[in-house]
Amino acid sequence: MSAIHLDTWRDLPVAQQPAWPDRGELARVVDELKGLPPLVFAGECDQLKQSLAAVARGEAFVLQGGDCAETFAGATAENVRNKLKTLLQMAIVLTYAGRVPVVKIGRVAGQFAKPRSKDTEIRDGVELPAYRGDMVNGFDFTPEARRPDPGRLLRAYHSSAVTLNLARAFTKGGYADLRQVHAWNQDFVAESPAGRRYEKLAREIDQALAFMRACGAEPEEFHTVEFYSSHEALILDYDRALTRIDSRTGLPYDVSAHMVWIGERTRQLNGAHVEFFSKIRNPIGVKLGPTTTPEEAIALIEKLNPDNEPGRLTFISRMGANRVRDALPTLVDKVRASGATVAWICDPMHGNTFEAPSGHKTRRVDDVLDEVAGFFEVHHALGTHPGGVHIEFTGDDVTECVGGGHEIAEEDLALRYETACDPRLNRGQSLDLAFRVAELYRS
Ligand code: PEP
Ligand code: MN
């Protein structure tokens, strides 16, 4: 496939791109990006595709999550470790209590760009460009910070490399060994109900492991985990610059992440994002909101997965707790009737955002849990497979979503509200969600 073929998206309307003030600087940055090494290998993307094919067949479950928006400042060992620790704990809960293999995908190492509903933000009568993620501009509300800077695409690449290096070291270098199930929880047990519940499960796992070792079983899978990276491929100049032809197959892969997805605001059938995604061979996702028609979903399948390759396409529904039970069934049913193979996963975050009286963007944990429950009800009723969850969470004890086991009230939001974009579940809330999902999975 020629490189020119990968640029057909340039002739189409492209939503949500920054107004770069200096196109010459952008071109120089893109050239530099094109010469940099891949962050992931095509073979790893294919492996993930195989795992997602198992999800589509009903044999595995996806846990995909991380920050709404990563920041350059957040690429620290402690921050990445805390996120991974929480993700590993959630995955253990799902594997052990839900009895299902879990495909672990981080919203990490590249989740630096945000679509915005408005191009500008007004504060105290001052209007500046909206924050579009660290890949584009700065969070501070000053003209200098908010000016889109192409140099940030390079920083996004390097920050992704650092994060992915840490993630690979943590997951392959002993930290993810099942004998560490207690260690991941150590700083968390005493003070939280979710931590105590987890500790009980970890003790059971210890006993099972001791039994297996006594039997002489010590499989490789107990010592490391497969962990994959993903982000919304929003800024097409960046993802295009990191698209390479795989020497094994001669096919193009976006080597900035294992999986990339198209957001709710950029999934126009005749738009640039769908066109670009149709050319790369990674496993891909598309967010589907409550206004999606079955015809749109099927047209997306025809464009993005015409050969019906298993594991290639994942639909990430984000309907809202109050819509999921009426908006999702027809979509799932019509897609199934079309004969297409897709994995269905549930993003219970983005349909449930509201503004608290304090002005903080927040979500109710109860709504999040209710959307997940609705997602399972819909799939159980249709006999299709509820294939996973996609969440925004952090390993820290932030106060961004209200409710949950350690009841956070709307008045508490200001205590530790640190997100650069949407509100994330904190560690306890994430573990509670995992226990709930495990119950739903087994029921
Ligand atoms: C997101 O995942 O942060 C996001 C913007 O989601 P959506 O495209 O579903 O609105
Ligand atoms: Mn978000």
UniProtKB/TrEMBL annotation:
Statement: the UniProt record of this protein carries the keyword Manganese: yes
Root EC class: transferase
Gene3D superfamilies assigned to the protein according to its UniProt record, in alphabetical order: Aldolase class I (3.20.20.70)
BP-aspect Gene Ontology terms: amino acid biosynthetic process; aromatic amino acid family biosynthetic process; chorismate biosynthetic process
Binding annotation for phosphoenolpyruvate: R107, E264, R265, K287, R318
Named cofactor requirement(s): Mn(2+); Co(2+); Cd(2+)
Matches recorded under InterPro entries: Aldolase_TIM, DAHP_synth_2
Region forming the signal peptide: none
GO molecular function: 3-deoxy-7-phosphoheptulonate synthase activity
EC number of this enzyme: 2.5.1.54
Keywords for the protein's UniProt record, in alphabetical order: Amino-acid biosynthesis, Aromatic amino acid biosynthesis, Cadmium, Cobalt, Manganese, Transferase
Manner of cofactor binding, per the entry note: Binds 1 divalent cation per subunit. The enzyme is active with manganese, cobalt or cadmium ions.
Keyword Manganese listed: yes
Residues reported to bind Mn(2+): C68, H350, E392, D422
Pfam families membership: DAHP_synth_2
Catalysed reactions listed for this entry: D-erythrose 4-phosphate + phosphoenolpyruvate + H2O = 7-phospho-2-dehydro-3-deoxy-D-arabino-heptonate + phosphate
Pathway annotation: Metabolic intermediate biosynthesis; chorismate biosynthesis; chorismate from D-erythrose 4-phosphate and phosphoenolpyruvate: step 1/7
PANTHER family for this protein: PHOSPHO-2-DEHYDRO-3-DEOXYHEPTONATE ALDOLASE, PHOSPHO-2-DEHYDRO-3-DEOXYHEPTONATE ALDOLASE 1, 2
Entry similarity comment: Belongs to the class-II DAHP synthase family.
UniProt name for this protein: Phospho-2-dehydro-3-deoxyheptonate aldolase
Organism from which the protein derives: Planotetraspora mira
